[in-house]
Amino acid sequence: MNKPRNFCLQFVAVILGFLVAAGLAQAASYKGFAESLVRNLPKGAQFRPDLEAIIAGYANAYRARQGKKPLTASDRFLLPARAHALDMMANGFLGHNASTGHNFDSRMRVFVDDITQFPGMAENAARDSQNTPVDKIKARRLFQQWIDSRPHRKALVSRDYAFVSTAVAQRGNKIWAVQIFWATPREKGLFQ
What we know:
Radius of gyration: 19 Å
Distance between the termini: 35 Å
Largest sheet: 5 strands, mixed
């Protein structure tokens, strides 16, 4: 091989190595960020396990009306769901990208050894900021946002998903909710 070509290949290898290392460091930093958020709640924030159960129930009732099997409620992805709800609360946004810039896929990758074990995943996120009591009526109104949104409704009724982790965070009379859906995991991922 000639010297200029060899140099180019070495240069590309070094750049790729830096990119991989930076990606791994960024992933590790997101996991630490998420764990810290859940451990150290923003001022005035609290989790609402009662509303988490109610919203998971709304999801299964809606699925039943659509002729779909119920989802099994699970804590498997409760930490990332709660972290994202808190991130939206603390940083004043609503969406699927974290304030750190991580999208849904990159956020989920830090919580599993091999993301390919999970053949399908999705996320719904919403907030209700109306000045009303925080109760099951508010939770129902928040859930209705997902039904009224085609992409969120599609995730709710997808036959691909068997499990759901539901997070609800409250501050004052506002709530933020996140549902993470996933398919039955493979015994081994493609990289195991």
